[in-house]
Amino acid sequence: xxxxxxxxxxxxxxxxxxxxxxxxxxxxxxxxxxxxxxxxxxxxxxxxxxxxxxxxxxxxxxxxxxxxxxxxxxxxxxxxxxxxxxxxxxxxxxxxxxxxxxxxxxxxxxxxxxxxxxxxxxxxxxxxxxxxxxxxxxxxxxxxxxxxxxxxxxxxxxxxxxxxxxxxxxxxxxxxxxxxxxxxxxxxxxxxxxxxxxxxxxxxxxxxxxxxxxxxxxxxxxxxxxxxxxxxxxxxxxxxxxxxxxxxxxxxxxxxxxxxxxxxxxxxxxxxxxxxxxxxxxxxxxxxxxxxxxxxxxxxxxxxxxxxxxxxxxxxxxxxxxxxxxxxxxxxxxxxxxxxxxxxxxxxxxxxxxxxxxxxxxxxxxxxxxxxxxxxxxxxxxxxxxxxxxxxxxxxxxxxxxxxxxxxxxxxxxxxxxxxxxxxxxxxxxxxxxxx
Length: 436
Fold this sequence. Notes:
Layout: H1 16-37, H2 41-69, E1 71-72, E2 79-80, H3 89-93, E3 99-101, E4 107-110, E5 117-122, H4 123-131, H5 135-141, E6 151-164, E7 171-172, E8 175-176, E9 183-195, E10 197-198, E11 203-204, H6 207-221, E12 225-233, E13 240-255, E14 258-273, E15 277-287, H7 293-307, E16 310-311, H8 317-355, H9 363-373, H10 375-382, H11 388-402, H12 406-421, H13 424-435
Antiparallel strand pairs: 1-2, 3-4, 4-16, 5-6, 6-9, 6-13, 7-8, 7-13, 9-15, 10-11, 12-13, 13-14, 14-15
Helix pairs in contact: 1-2, 8-10, 8-13, 11-12
């Protein structure tokens, strides 16, 4: 006789709240049964105390999870409710006039105040705009450009605060700093997607990897300081998020033409996990300003804007994911066709540099060298490489496997001599390419 099936389906327990509810139901049920069967007052008291203690512990755990899931933004007392709800494909296709759909149709967000500017551009153009430098000026000054062509959308307030530091007087994050470069502080929200699978090899990576890759660029700049790094699950949608808060404090600077003023420049980055890609919401805003009701109004508009962000909930993400994988495979084949030979030369060059110190007359060292070089025969076929020196290497390798290593030793030594004869910069370039 088969045991009766449980009405509880474990596969439906997908979050902390259902799990806590399930555990509470089971434990309280067992304790309740004990309380019902208890024969003495002491036994009933113990059962009752345990039931109360466990109930209070679960309530405390729920409160802690809720508090941890709240998104707080540096410089504000309130919390934001970004991505608390999701958008359906129907809402994306026929949304309210006061709501905007993402350029790729993957999210909804409210329109900003009427005097704000909405920009859609590449990430590279967005960076240039933030620097306050026109395209023509960048060419004339020979300023390095980024080739990042991701599509971004930015919402900018028309009000820009000018903060000019005075070398030897202005303190940056508590220290005097030798800089006179103007800091432009503008209330702004920028949204840009990050595909899970990034070129050139299209390895699918999680939110944590993509998020840290983006915020690492801000830490490398050195002009802002990372103040907090948090993560959690958004209430409502249950999506994972990562948050990084950066700031730069300026004291005794010229703020909008007034000397001896202080301000704080803030950048808060929120990464939100989506079905097929991740989203970066980057907030720029100033704080610690005195008597600026216009800036306070911009800040409230910024918080409302972020809170209205709603990512698309796909009905069948797996089907679209398969289509993306097929496209990624095509891109990989194209990469191999264009740069496969260069990749081969770079990797086998580094491998030969490793083998250079081997004593190939020692059977053990020779076997290791054969193990390192054997996969390159497959690599050469994969990239359709036909070069006599490497074909000879692979023929000699097979002979070495059969017991005659004379030609193999000579082939390896000849290739190492050829590598050493190359320009040192070329060899160094190969090593750097691998490091990347």
